[in-house]
Amino acid sequence: xxxxxxxxxxxxxxxDEEAIALARAVEKGIAHLGGVTAVIAPPFPFxxxxxxxxxxxxxxxxxxxxxxxxxxxxxxSAHELRxxxxxxxxxxxxERRAMGESNVVVNKKLRAVLEEGLTAVLCxxxxxxxxxxxxxxxxxxxxxxxxxSMKGIKNWKSGIEDNVIIAYEPVxxxxxxxxxxxxxxxEMAEFIxxxxxxxxxxxxxxxLYGGSTDAANxxxxxxxxxxxxALVGGASLKASxxxxxxxxxxxxxxxxx
Length: 257
Ligand code: PGA
Description:
The protein is α/β, with parallel strands linked by helices. About 40% of the residues lie in helices and about 15% in strands. The chain has ten helices and eight strands. An eight-stranded parallel beta sheet has the order 7-6-5-4-3-2-1-8. α1 (about 15-30) runs parallel beside α10 (about 240-255) and α7 packs parallel to α8 (about 180-200). The longest helix is centred in the last third of the chain and has 18 residues, at about 180-200. 2-phosphoglycolic acid binds next to β8.
């Protein structure tokens, strides 16, 4: 399967014009890269405008609501996202969890996204206070997030679990410039893949890494052979940096063949 790179623009940029310019620049740089799938997840108001300038790059969303339609002021459904061209939806990002999103909510969102036929990018990752206790503590934390977020998935529409991608993002590494060790990340990715087998029907999903990734460090994660791509925040706001990351991911996957 092709490696994946996802741009999580978060609450940036400030205008339609800037969003279009950034998307155009990324699209231009990505167009000739055949070995990596690129996704841009802009803020909701820019989804339509960004989609209009994308051709080789796919559209993502940063969040979703679980109900199909109705009186839910301020919310956006998976169906509405699909209507504007969204194919990937980030769910359970730690910045949303920090605003109070629980595993129960994440579970409902996951189901809604998958049943709409979209691909879910389910984010998991331990905070610093857990990580300092060691690998076993971090793994138990992530295991709990996976089990609770994916609860009942075996009984959902058959086959939809193939559309789950896991993004491992240690909370302390997000937006901090604090880089995690590729060996530790690979160990967690392996643990995630093993943990998911009994939760799903023996699914081995793609596992992305996110947390202060950039053009200089991304190859190190991919080279472990256990990381299938990157979920990129800060570095995705600079087209040249994001394109360089995509190129580096492609280069490593070419050498793996
Ligand atoms: P970062 O963000 O690359 O700025 O650390 C990653 C993310 O939040 O997905």
